[in-house]
Structures are given as C-alpha cells and as structure tokens.
What we know:
Blueprint: H1 6-11, E1 34-43, E2 54-56, E3 68-72, E4 75-79, E5 85-86, E6 88-94, E7 101-107, E8 123-124, E9 128-132, E10 135-143, E11 147-153, E12 164-165, E13 171-178, E14 181-188, E15 201-208, E16 213-223, E17 236-243, E18 246-253, E19 261-267, E20 275-276, E21 283-284, E22 297-306, E23 312-319, E24 332-341, E25 344-346, E26 357-359, E27 377-381, E28 394-395, E29 403-406, E30 409-412, E31 426-427, E32 430-431, E33 436-444, E34 452-460, E35 463-472, E36 475-484, E37 487-495, E38 502-509, E39 512-518, E40 523-531, H2 537-540, E41 547-553
Antiparallel strand pairs: 1-27, 1-30, 1-33, 2-26, 3-4, 4-6, 5-28, 6-7, 8-10, 9-10, 10-11, 11-12, 13-14, 14-15, 15-16, 17-18, 18-19, 19-20, 19-21, 22-23, 23-24, 24-25, 29-30, 31-41, 32-41, 33-38, 34-35, 34-41, 35-36, 36-37, 38-39, 39-40
Amino acid sequence: MRILTLALIALAGTSVAQGSPAQTAAAPSDASPRFSRFSYEGRSPGAAPLQRNQYRNPILSGYYPDPSVTRVGEDYYLVNSSFAHFPGLPVFHSRDLVNWTQIGNAIDRPDQLDFTGMRTSQAVFAPDISYHDGVFYIVNTCVECKGNFVITARNPAGPWSAPIWLPFEGIDPSIFWEGDKAYIVNNRAPAEPPRYDGHRAIWIQEYDWRKGQMVGESTQLVNGGVDLSKKPVWIEGPHIFRKDGWYYLTAAEGGTSVNHSQVVLRSRTLRGRYEPYAGNPILTQRDLDPARSRPITSAGHAELVQTQTGEWWATFLAVRPYSGDYYNIGRETFLLPVTWKDGWPIILPKGQRVPEVAASPRLPSQRPGPVPTAGAFSYVDEFDGDRLAMQWVGVRTPKAPFYRLTGGELVLGRGAPMGDLAGVPAFVGRRQQHHDTTISTTLRFSPKTGDRAGLAAMQSDKAHLFFGLTRIAEKPVVALYTTQEGKEQLVASAPVDPAGPVTLTIDATGGTMRFSYTTGATPRTLASDVDVRFLSTRMAGGFVGTLIGPYAWTR
Length: 555
C-alpha cells in the first residue's frame, strides 16, 4: 500500500527556520544526489520454525511501540506511537491479529501537527484507536505541542481530520464508549502534591463527541498505581472495557524499561471505586533471570480486544535486546492470548517468558501483507512509482520540498544538517527491524566541498551515523562518520571516483556494523566491527528505534 499524493510529495520535505542560509530548503536539482534500489534483508538467527496454526512474536518487528487495537466486525485496526517522525501514527489492518498491513499514517499532512524544533522522542506519544457510529477516533498526546487531541476519519486509511485539542494535562488518553456516550481516561497529575518522582494518577472525564468538547467533572480513578504505599511509578497507558457487569481498567506501571508491567483493576461503576487484582501484574518480564537466552524484556502498555469468536487477546510492547539491555531497533508490538481466572484477565502468568512462537487466534488465516512485519523477511524499493511507500518517514514536520521520485531514482535536494533541531534533514528512512540485517542502496553523486550524501542510521539528533560520499582535503572519498552525544567523529575514509555509481552496504550484527562500498565489480570494506551501541536506547535514550535510509547535506 502507498500513501502521499503528488501534492504531498511536494510538501514532504524540510521544516526550516526562516532567515538562516544554512537552514534554507531547496528542491532537488540536476546535480542533486540520486539514489536507486534500496534493499533490506532482515535475518532472525536461531528462531524456531513455525508449525501449522502458529504465529511469531513480535507481530510488528522493530520500532512500533505502544500498540492500540480495536475490532470493527471481522476487521482489526492497530495504531502505534511515532513521536517526532513524519508521517506519523502508522495505522495497520488485519483480519487474524497476526498478519498486519499498513494502510496509512494518521498524521500525513504538515498542517495537522507541527513538530518544528522537537527532538525525535517528543511529539506524538501512545495513541488510542476506537470506532463509533461509522467514525474512527484516535485520541493522542502531542508532547510539547499543545497537549492532548482527537482526530477522526471515516476510513481508517485516511484522510484523518485536523486535531481537536482537549483542555486537560497529562498523556496517554484513550476513549471508552458506553452506548452513545464517550469517556476519556488518561494519565494526569494526582489530586495531591506528588509524593515521589513518577507519582501519577489515572483520571476520567466525559467527552461530547458530537461537539468535540470535554464535559462534566473529572474523577480520579487510580492514585499512583496498584499500591500507593509501595510508591509505584508512571501509571500510564490506561484503557477501560466492560465485561460481565464489571468495568476493567488496565494500565502500564513501572516505566517502559526493564521494570515495565501491566496491571488491572475493576469496579462495578464506571467512576469507581476500582479495586486492584491481588495477582497483579498480569504481564511483566522484570522478575526473570536477566542472563536468560534470547530474552524478551520490558513488556507492558497492553490493550485487550475480544474477537468475534469470543476469545480475548492483548497487544503490547516489549523489546528484544541483543546483549544486556542493548537494542537498536526500538520497542516492538507483541501479541498474546488472555485467559480469565476468577473474573480477572491474565495475559501471562508470573514467571513465564513471552513466547517467540504461540498458537494463533481462532480466526480465518490470511496471507502476510505486501510488506512483511514479522520473522525474517526482505524487501526492495526500486523507487519506480510516483510516490514513496508509506513506511518511509523523516524527522519533524516538513514545510518545503527536498525530494522527488523520477526514473526509478530518489533525488534529494537540500535540507538542514542532521542534528539541527531548527530544521528537517534531507533524510528519509525505514525502520531497522532486525538486529541482523543487510541494507544497501546505489548512489550517483559528485560532491563539492562540504557536501555529503549516502546512508544515515539515525536514532536521535545526537546519536546517528553517516556512510557515503563527501570530500576530505578537497578529494572525493567514501567516508564513515559517527555522532555520539552530539559529537561527530571520522571513523574511516577511502578515495573514490564519483564519476560512476557507488553501491553502499551496511551489515548489522547486533551491536556492530560493517560498511562496504562497490564502485566496479569488487566490493570493498571501509570499516568492520564498528561498535554501534550508541544507537541503542540504553545509550541514546528516548523511546524510538533506529531509522536507516538516504540522506544528503548539500550547500
């Protein structure tokens, strides 16, 4: 599936500050860098083979965190966080909860949200998707850009509306529908001075969906978490559903790192009092041996959904470190069945590991989509259409053109230098979805002094690398630069003739990468065993994963 009309292609470029020549955008020219054939091969060494009626976790590999899922008839829709990447809030469709196809991005127009000046891990946090009376709703928070909002669409593939801004603080709102009424539940400050760092609360308030307004009083449902005396931190990501006369409130607790968990409380009335489950948490991996093989950690931020066959399932985020707590690919979307015990839902019994392979839901199976999302897979983008695939994203909101597609090539113009928060780099990337992967593209470019074009791997504005063509001492070279904590370092360079095409290849294996280039028939290695743990969440911080793709900085 593809998005972005030709008009949006013209817009999908550089967000710039006015008045600074270094930040002025320019459309591509005949001398601009030209990229062809972007290929991705992701490997999953040691993965167990699938048997009939089994599926593999994660169901969305790579940087797809904070999944929210809803069912409409026999169709399932899922949306993820995307922070300051644009287009944002990817929307997926499935009919079996296992095989997902991206159908759109809910934030795909520069006039919807403005991410100017924002770091990669700011902007749109955990979204919630729901459906009522023929309309889809996403309620979300834009951190550092006006706060909480609602967008709507009659078709989940889009277009989605402009935001309706909501007048309350906090993050992670979701909508609970009861009959023809809507209620928004979210994380806010507690109704008392905070007792400790991370002391938050869950609140509820009615939302008039016809007028797009909050109405009535707000009610605090949960103060701090399951047990305030134990100083629980970061109660967030709340969702409410009703079953058998009970209102169930599920939420994440413990923060989204290794202490992450999912808890549940219930009440006979919507506004409480909510009593916690004695067996909480209903999902966590924090109590397992950190030295276990092939660990899956940091599980939480779940949402439950009931299938048309009566089963209950949960989507949630977790991570797959390659060593210790190091992972470069971000937080991923997982799926597990929900069992019920004495009127309480349990996603995973205590002490059990999140399985890599599990029995599939009792739903009609479907084939994987055109762009696979789970297991080992590969794809090639020939840049042969008139629009980029919807999986390509950049950094911050575009306001001027910096690329075009022509004749099977992606042509990049001028943008801000990578790391400049005041602008948008001339960069489009795809998520790194496997720790072990090979990524390559072919570049035609004759750099002038100060120019560079090639592949960039970006985790944040202060943690990224560049591999491609530039000039050093007035001579054309292929070079590798790494940027850690905002400080750039030249790792390696070699002379190259830029008259012909150069194929650039990155081979990632866990926390290391090899960088190779080909100008004729023989590939050459520029650098190998390069430590790229600085692209991990552990070192770079934030909530995103690594993006890899074409980048250019030209004067």
